[in-house]
Design brief:
There is one protein chain. The chain is mainly α and 152 residues long. 66% of the residues lie in helices and 0% in strands. It is globular, with a radius of gyration of 15 Å.
Length: 152
């Protein structure tokens, strides 16, 4: 089925609210960390549209090809990422895959040890938003290689 609803046009209030939530979630977070989190969640959710958008954004922001390549195997390539980034990636995986066992205490504690309470809340909000964007893009069959975002 190729003719799917255009969520932005048919649910503009919900779409605008999500854009606002996304902007609020990013506030105060390191932009490089934001992209790492969005890329990892998009990999796990198999959202090709969002993966393309966020790897492109990361490249434009100066992220290295080496680190982009290593995100999927960040545990095995830990030397490419800071402790803070590793904690964020672990939390991203736990929240994204929450149905596979919740968010383990050690994963949460690791993130809490790297982020202040407010920054941790921002990180969680970011993880929530990218998972929502992934679900919208997958459900509405967004085409990878295009960038249909409304300015966020």
């Amino acid at each position: 089925m190729t003719n799917r609803v255009n969520f932005a046009k048919t649910a503009p209030k919900a779409f605008k609210a999500l854009i606002g939530f996304d902007a609020a979630a990013r506030a105060g977070l390191d932009p490089a960390l934001v992209e790492l989190v969005q890329i990892r969640a998009s990999q796990l959710n198999r959202c090709a549209y969002c993966l393309h958008v966020h790897t492109s954004d990361a490249r434009k922001a100066g992220e290295s090809e080496e680190r982009l390549t290593m995100i999927a195997v960040w545990r095995e390539a830990a030397s490419f990422f800071t402790e803070k980034e590793q904690a964020a990636l672990a939390l991203t995986e736990a929240v994204t895959l929450v149905s596979e066992g919740g968010v383990p205490d050690d994963v949460y504690a690791r993130a809490a040890g790297q982020f202040g309470e407010e920054e941790l809340a921002q990180l969680l909000a970011l993880i929530f938003t990218i998972n929502t964007w992934n679900r919208i893009a997958i459900t509405t069959a967004k085409v990878p290689g295009t960038d249909e975002r409304v300015a966020r």
